[in-house]
Design brief:
Number of helices: 11
CATH class of the largest domain: Mainly Alpha
Order of helices and strands: HHHHHHHHHHH
Largest sheet: none
Radius of gyration: 22 Å
Strand content: under 5%
CATH topology of the largest domain: MetI-like fold
CATH superfamily of the largest domain: MetI-like
Helix content: over 70%
């Protein structure tokens, strides 16, 4: 019952928005190319379910692959940055520069390097997009350690590797998962934006552009809903992994209390 009470206001608001949307479009005579009715979007979703499912799966694969590439690179750079001062001075400017790269300008370059139809070109765009959030959060987690914990490890004559494995990494895990939750949404956005600049038909970005070009906006909205659902699913998967990996953390206990 507590879960029902917790989610009831959001569910009620969602239904109210859909009903209001449907009524306003019908009463005000809003053109379909401006704002399709929810019923028209639902019909388009049913009619193109197989195509949308395939496109959503392919885009999600690009997002997951890009997050994996960018995440591994970010963890490696963060580990080196937190461990060695020279690495920090050398790598941080490049990390900041990567964060300032406009994805819209970067996507065509990746298509040229790896091929328009190659999913790797979209993965690399996603990797650049998620690199900085993961890297900077990991650095914070590795460096913002309680001094008492470090003093305790030194009193046991622990070497730097032991301190890193037993103190710094556990301390950084909540920061890492926070970055991954943010990056889960960013990865879908990056993949779809990269697909706007070319790619196979069976991806969400190209599906949206094609359907909008032929004024089939209900189909385009259906694809947007699929993208949102994929992003939410990706976020929930990472949240579930966090609860498994960090059962001792306050965020996991707060989620269980709902």
């Amino acid at each position: 019952m507590s879960r029902i009470r917790y989610y009831a206001p959001a569910a009620t608001l969602f239904v109210a928005v859909l009903v209001t949307w449907e009524l306003l479009v019908s009463v005000l005579g809003i053109q379909q190319f401006l704002l399709p009715r929810p019923s028209a979007i639902a019909a388009a979703f049913v009619d193109h379910l197989d195509e949308l499912a395939t496109a959503g799966r392919n885009t999600l694969i690009e997002a997951v692959g890009g997050l994996a590439i960018g995440g591994v690179a970010a963890l490696a750079v963060a580990g080196a940055t937190a461990r060695w001062t020279t690495a920090s001075r050398t790598l941080l400017p490049f990390a900041i520069a990567a964060n300032s790269v406009p994805i819209i300008a970067f996507a065509p370059i990746m298509n040229n390097w790896f091929g328009v139809l190659n999913p790797l070109s979209k993965m690399m765009v996603v990797a650049v997009l998620v690199f900085f959030p993961v890297m900077i959060n990991t650095v914070r987690g590795l460096t913002l350690v309680e001094p008492g914990s470090l003093e305790l490890m030194r009193s046991y004559a622990a070497d730097e590797l032991a301190v890193f494995l037993k103190v710094r990494i556990p301390n950084a895990l909540p920061y890492i998962f926070t970055a991954l939750r943010v990056s889960a949404t960013l990865s879908l956005i990056g993949a779809i934006v990269a697909e706007y600049f070319g790619g196979a038909r069976s991806v969400l970005g190209q599906f949206i552009i094609t359907e909008a070009a032929f004024f089939r906006f209900a189909n385009a909205w259906a694809a947007i809903i699929v993208a949102s659902a994929a992003s939410i699913a990706f976020f929930l998967i990472i949240l579930a992994l966090e609860r498994v990996a960090l059962p001792w953390h306050a965020s996991a206990r707060a989620t269980d209390a709902l």
